[in-house]
Structures are given as C-alpha cells and as structure tokens.
Amino acid sequence: MTASFDDACAQVARWIVQSTSTVVFSGAGISTESGIPDFRSPGGVWSRYDPEDYTFQNFIRSHEKRSLYWQRSNEMFDEFHKARPNAGHEVVAAWEKAGLVQAVITQNIDGLHQRAGSRNVIEIHGTAMKAVCLECGRTWPMTQVMDWVRSSRANVRDYVPYCEEDMPGGGKCGGPIKSATISFGQSMPEKELMDSFELSRTASLFIVLGSSLVVQPAAQLPLEARRAGAKLVIITASETPLDGIAEARFFTPIGQTLSAIAEQVGAMRN
User: Fold this and answer.
1) Is 108:27 a contact under the CB 8 Å cutoff?
2) Helix, strand, coil % over all residues of the chain, rounded to 5
C-alpha cells in the first residue's frame, strides 16, 4: 500500500467517526467481488440477452416474453444463490451495527447486504430474493418459485409460473408471477425512492461503493447529498460523472479499501 492510500483511508476513517449521519450507496461493483457479474459488462446478462425483450410492458403483454424472462431468471438465480457476502458487505454491516452507518441504499438485487448483517437496507431496484404476483400482490421466496419452474416442466423456456392463490369469491387468482425486481419500463418503488432522497439530503457523509453513477434516478442521490453539504467518497473501479466533486476517490477494490478504512476506524475508536 502506498502512503497516499493509507493517508486517504485515514482521512475517510476520521470522517466516518465524526459523521452524524453516514449513508452508503452501493452498485454492481461490490457484488462483482462476490462473483456476480456486472449485468452490463462483457459476459454479463445484457451481453447475452436483448434488454428490449425484458421490458415490463413486454412481460405484461406476452406469454412468450414472460417465458423468456423466466429463462433468464433461471440462469441468474444460480449466480445469486451461490454468491456470498464479501469483505465490503461485512465492513458495512459491522459499521451499521456499531452505529456508524445509518442506512444502505443499494441498486443491487442480490440481498448480499442483508446476508452480511445489514438491517436498514433500501433496495431501490427491488430484490431477486422474492417473487410477486402482479395481480393479487402475494409474495414468495424466489427459491420456492424456482422449484416450481424447474420441476414443473422439462424445458424451463416453456414454463411461466402463475398464481394459484385462492380468491375470496372462489377460483384461483391466475395472475403472472414475476421476481420482485424493477424491470426496464417499470415504475420505481415510490416509498423507497422518497426515503432514499430524504436520507441523501440529510447525510453528512455519503459513500458510493461500486456504482458507475449513470443509471437514473439513482445516480442523483450522491449529487443531492453533496449539494446538501455532505462529504462524498467514491470507491469504484470505473470513472463516474461525479469524480470531480468527491472529497475522496478510490479506484482500488472495495473489500480491500473498506477493510483498510475499517482498521483505521477501529484504531480511532479504541
């Protein structure tokens, strides 16, 4: 490690210890360190599938498109299921437990922050850990729905799960089941988005982990925090549109960087 890296980590550690409200904002880069490919990178989901086939409008409109959707979900499920939280997730969870992080806002749908122990997590793009009926709103663990998908038909391309919930007037709901993620063209969750903007505007320290800060409206959150007076720290491998206004900028791996900062935080608090 270079002295400049150590000095930068020490400075961020001081900000964390002094902060009255630290918000963490995470994107795909923290999950790639757990083995989940970035959807937009070479070899990622969107290099193998056409995003236009997976819009929310197409899912609603066509059984064929719903079948394509579940084919892709079948592939992604294994990547999410075998992934484990990494050092970055664990440091964030430990800071929350110690009262040093108020909340985590994440663009990720893999549930790794919660599995690491974070409790106050806002998933602004939904979660792949659950599925929901678009008609009656019932939810199921995704593991249960994938069991249906994989056991009901030999060819998963042909199988689309539909809700079997009993209705008050008799009969079954029959609504299409979808993962509880936000698809292209689908409205963002209103409460989660409002809570995220409120947290951003009241943060004194805003830490970006692994986001390219190009997907809207989520990319506005660190800008809102900075405009409201928060210090901005960005830790991600790629350049972002907000690099020029960040007080600290790291291009180093997230787990390595957060672990080094955590060591400094521990020394300052002892």
Assistant:
1) yes
2) 45, 15, 35
Point out the catalytic residue in the list 63, 89, 113, 125: 125
- Residue in this structure with the two tokens 């689908």, named with its chain if needed: 186
Q: In what order do the strands lie in the sheet with 126-133?
A: 139-141, 126-133, 177-181
Rounded-to-integer distance, Cα 128 and Cα 191, Å: 19
Query: What pLDDT, in 10s, does the model give residues 127-138?
Result: 999 999 999 999
Q: How far apart are CA 62 and CA 240, in angstroms?
A: 37
Tokens found for residue 171:
């009969």
Residue 242's CB: how many other CB atoms inside 10 A? 17
Residue 101's nearest CA partner among 115, 84, 86, 113 is 113
| Helix, strand, or coil (residue 188) | coil
- Prediction pTM value: 0.90
Q: pLDDT (tens digit, 9 = 90+) per residue, 204-263?
A: 999 999 999 998 899 999 999 999 999 999 999 999 999 999 999 999 999 999 999 999
DSSP code for 208: E
Q: State how far Cα 144 lies from the chain centre.
A: 21
Buried b (16+ CB within 10 A) or exposed e, 62-80: eeebbebbbbbbeebbebb
Torsion of CA 44, 126, 251, 80, to 10 degrees: -50
125: annotated active-site residue: yes
Helix (H, G, I), strand (E, B), or coil: what is residue 24? strand
CB-facing half-sphere around the CA of 224: CA atoms within 13 A: 19
